[in-house]
Amino acid sequence: MRPGSFSRPRLGGIRFVNSLPVDAGILTGAVPSAVELVQGTPVELNEKIAAGRLDLGPVSALWYAQHHSDLLLLPDLSVSSRSPVQSVLLFSRVPFRQLKGKSIAFAGKGWTTPALLEILSHERHGFLPRISVASIRVGQIPPDFDAALVIGDEALEWDHRIRNGLVPSPSYRFDLAEEWRGWTGKPFVFAVWVVRRSFYEERPEDVCEVYEVIAQSKEWGEAHLPEVLRLAEEKTELPAAVLRHYFETLDYGLDDELLEGLKLFWKYAVAMGRLAALPLPEFAAVTGEPERVIEGGVASILKKALDGGRLSLEEGTRLYHEADLHDLGAAANALNLRYNPESARRATFVVDRNINYTNTCITLCKFCAFYRLPGDKSEGYLRTHEEIFQKIEELIAIGGTQVLMQGGHNPELGIDYYEKLVRAVHSRFPQVHIHSFSASEVWHIAKTSKLSVQEVLLRLKAAGLNSLPGGGAEILVDRVRKLVSPLKTTAAEYFAVHRAAHEAGLKSTSTMVYGLGETIEERMVHLDLYRKLQDETGGFRAFIPWSFESESTEMPLPRRTGSEYLRMVALSRLMLDNIPHVQAGWVTEGPKLSQLALLYGADDFGGILMEENVVSATGSDRLYSGVTKEEAIRLIAETGKTPTQRNTNYEIVRVFSPQAEQVLA
Amino acid sequence: MIREFADIFAKIRDNVRLSGEDGIRLIKSKNLVELGAMADAVKQKKHGDRVYFTHSINVNHSNICVLSCKFCAFAKTKKDKEAYALATDEIERRVRVAASHGVWEVHIVGGLNPDLKLSYYEEMLGRIKRSCPGVLIQAFTAVELDFYARLEKISVEEVIGRLVRAGLGGVPGGGAEIFSERARALICAPKISAGRWIQIHQIVHRMGLRSNATMLYGHVETPEERVDHMLRLRRAQDESGGFLAFVPLAFQPDHTGLSHLPRTSGVTDLQVLATARLVLDNFPHIRQLWNYVDEKLIHVALKYGVDDLGGTNFDETIAKAAGSASKGFTREELVRLVRSCGGLPQEVNSTYTPIQKDRLLAVGEPV
Q: Nearest residue on chain A to B302, judged by CA atoms?
């Protein structure tokens, strides 16, 4: 901070103990700073920020939404609860539903809480609560009222006194955060930290510095719980055990899950007329180099992409969260037409067959239901050459051109096995394109045979390998890979294989399996890594996103929605400005969605995958038995495009009549 | 972003009614992002982020039917081994079990069974109403009401009057199929005519009940005939005003007389939904039943004008086994589905009266 040139930034702090874990470092002087910390109730802080008497600080979650055009959020700071919060309580003489028409007392110190009570009453019990401001003595519902809404330290103390028999226990007690969680499944955000937009624009460096102080103070609080508890005990006379438990239930960050809870609360506030419109949360850029807020919002990001600009990770993330699905689709379609002008009248597909030569694998990925361990005599298998030839003959019989051999990481199989396999297939079926072995298989071969990745690829290429599929990418961020597939190739290893393949003259495809517990930022990092390698090698032909299907795997995660799939297809097209094709995929999304992908930025229907075993092994009954060549042709025709069979090199094999469209009469 | 349909979008914004030609342009369009954007804008204006559903039980009292519609895999003749007709005490029992699981809505439709008299239906409704007075009974398609009238040789007004006195609360939209005489002759020749179907609904409306209207698509009908169906409903609604939801039903070819036809595609489903939302300006609700299309398409449908996902079709046998439906949705799963798409789930009964019950709500425990 430049002393003398400006007044000291004025930072707010909530007077309740709930934000002590954030503020204690500053209050005790453990984190030295030149800020002035002004404490107050949430409502007082709201008013001071509005009046310009504070520059930064926590405000009520609803109040921020009502004034968001004048404010910016500070990242990773909030007072939130993922479970019972214990400090937002409704004490009542009667059951919740009987509060209809009754008076509820509220001391008026918060802004978000009454709105939360209003939403819960209206949405779950069908009445609007009558909330009046009244002074409330801890432990006593005021005589003229049937219930009291209490927040902060007073709520904690009330509970504590009931537990110790110091005040009579009212008939009913409702923890509103718990009610919200039980009803929506989402956490609740009570307060967020903000900076006045005008202050940020004048003094971004100072904001960064104060943010750093808050962040350090929060870190100090996490590391020095006993000191924080001591401060809290002084303020409230509550025992340390109660306070400790309280702090443990609160969350002071602001991750995607909390933001989702916040947005849902705002949505209800809009539905209830408490809020004019849903705000788009805008964050001040306070870490790293100070920079200005992204100007103009989603429309300008889309325009930038359409003007040929490369989108940043932040811009991609923002589009994911904020852009309307149809706007994304329109922009992605326009870009697709630029990269693939023929897609105005046609969509391509490939007739291929998946051959899983072995299911024996030692990589133990948590998301996989396909593999069997070495030694599994009953279900483990290794296909003979004859079996494989038979399958390829069936493929050729229906006019297929591509064989996709992929298998487990079988410790018995080295370069000799693969070389023989590829050579045998190539010499017997020279017309078939061998698009086989994902990066992790190549890595595995190199390891078991003690060869370099380059040597493996050159030998397989010499034997007849044409190109590499993009499988095994999942999410190319090691944090996620460590969680879901710790024994599989790292992101760097995955890219090393693809780089080596491109250098050896082998083209490859790129993929993503989203919904593995990654953040949206991590999805963007994934796309960006592909984009960077593609800048150097130009070896990726296509990108294929699909969602994780979790049934029968060790990772029961929520199923991703069809609208998110279209969003990801469109975003891939927008972010990947140097990969020629985006493919739809029916295996996890179904024929209806893969068809729609062709209208949301994809130019290619992908393969019909005559024999898909890996995803099918999840046994999910929400999956689809398969898409035949005839179905692919019909689905494409119904999009108004000419179904066009291609080979792996995107050369046209056969054009089908556009009149293949479903005969209606 | 609306370019191709700028003229139609201008009409929508100015509250000008779309013409049949507009409807045909829309339903044939492959410009789905524009269809979706317009339908979503209208849906947002009417309902915001709300998505309605009912927690309901489906009762099919009999599968014996004198008709043999080509698209139907349910009907049986009396002699068939699988033919059945449920006793009214069994129906009452099923509803009571469902009601104890929080179901507030009973949906009853069945075949045209010549052995069941109107008194059977009166008894059925009466029993349900006596043991579960709070539930709303939406029952008997126009086709069934017409059949009862002919069977009893009384007017359809009298049939409806007697059923209402017994407890009928609303009429479902089934049996409309497709109004086009050409297509109707191909798939369900012996069924009541389009005119009769509409007439019965208008009688229902005049007698103070609300109803819905379905459209079966994806069989032998043309896109023009789909729009024609919507226009006939729009005219009828102008006159009697009692329709609440338009419910397009994607034809399910398996085990029917038309099993050679493919299932509808995503493009067709969305064309129908978006066009319905834009053309049917006097229908408050556009409903996509979750059991007619893939789950992932439902997510997308919520961005194409749909504000209603229909009933949960509570299955007491599944509830008894304490498992969840392997296909289909429990109440909680439906709520989760709506939320995962950014919608605000609102449980209603079929007259769109919100249902609030604290049993859903993890009631606060007494201290």
A: A563
Tokens representing residue B351 in the block:
């007259």
Q: How many residues does chain B have?
A: 367
Alpha-helical regions (H) of A203-310? 204-223, 225-236, 240-249, 256-271, 298-306
Closest CA to A225 of A203, A204, A252: A252
Interchain contact A600–B (C-beta under 8 A): yes
Q: Domain A88-184 maps to which CATH number in 3.20.19.10, 3.50.50.60, 3.90.1150.10, 3.40.190.10? A: 3.40.190.10
CA dihedral sign, ordered B142, B146, B152, B158: positive
CB atoms within 10 A of CB B9: 19
Q: Where are the alpha helices (DSSP H) in B58-155?
A: 88-100, 118-131, 142-152
Chain A / chain B CB contacts < 8 angstroms: 159
- CB A498 within 8 Å of CB A439: yes
Domain coordinates in residue numbering, chain A? 10-82+189-271, 88-184, 346-656
The three-state secondary structure class of A355 is strand
**Which of B40, B267, B364 shows the shortest C-beta gap to A595?**
B267
Other beta carbons within 10 Å of A582:
28
Same CATH topology for A88-184 and A346-656? no
| Chain A residues whose beta carbon lies within 8 Å of the beta carbon of residue B365 | 173
Contact of A335 with chain B, judged by CB distance below 8 Å, is answered with no
Q: Per the structure block, which two tokens stand in for B285?
A: 């609700």
Alpha carbon dihedral A89, A93, A95, A100, in 10-degree steps, equals: -90
pLDDT value at residue B330 = 82
pLDDT digits (tens, 9 = 90+) for A350-399: 999 999 999 999 888 888 888 899 989 889 999 999 999 999 999 999 99
Q: Report the 10 Å Cβ neighbour count for A82.
A: 16
CA-closest candidate to residue A217, choices A13, A58, A32, A11: A32
Task: Report the complex ipTM.
Answer: 0.91
Contact residues, A window 568-597, toward B, CB-based 8 Å cutoff: 589-593, 595-596
Q: Does the beta-carbon distance from B262 to A126 stay under 8 Å?
A: no
Cβ distance A324 to B300 less than 8 Å, yes or no, reads: no
Instruction: Decide yes or no: CATH 3.20.20.70 for domain A346-656.
Output: yes
A16: contact with B, CB 8 A cutoff: no
Integer distance in angstroms from the first to the last C-alpha of chain B?
56
Does A558 contact B340 at a Cβ distance shorter than 8 Å?
Answer: yes
- Better-predicted residue by pLDDT, B343 or B316: B343
Give A174's contacts in chain B (Cβ within 8 Å).
364
What is the model's pLDDT at position B328? 63
CATH superfamily of B20-355: Aldolase class I (3.20.20.70)
Place of tokens 């483990």: A380
Residue B16 CB neighbours (<10 A) = 12
Q: What percent of chain B lies above the pLDDT cut of 70?
A: 93
Contact A49, A40 (CB under 8 A): no
CB A186 within 8 A of CB A58: no
A171/chain B closest Cα distance in angstroms:
6
Digit-coded pLDDT (tens) for A472-522: 999 999 999 999 888 889 999 999 999 999 999 999 999 999 999 999 999
Interface of A with B in 622-641 (CB under 8 A): 622, 631, 634-635, 638-641
Are the Cβ atoms of B1 and A563 closer than 8 angstroms? no
Comparing CA positions, the residue from A256, A312, A318 lying closest to residue A528 is A312
Task: Kindly compute the dihedral angle of the four CA atoms of residues A353, A358, A363, A368, in this order, to the nearest 10 degrees.
Answer: 50
d(C-alpha A434, C-alpha A403), whole Å: 5
Interface check for B48 against chain A (CB to CB < 8 A): the answer is yes
Instruction: At A528, list the tokens.
Output: 């960006």
Residue B227: Cβ within 10 Å count: 25
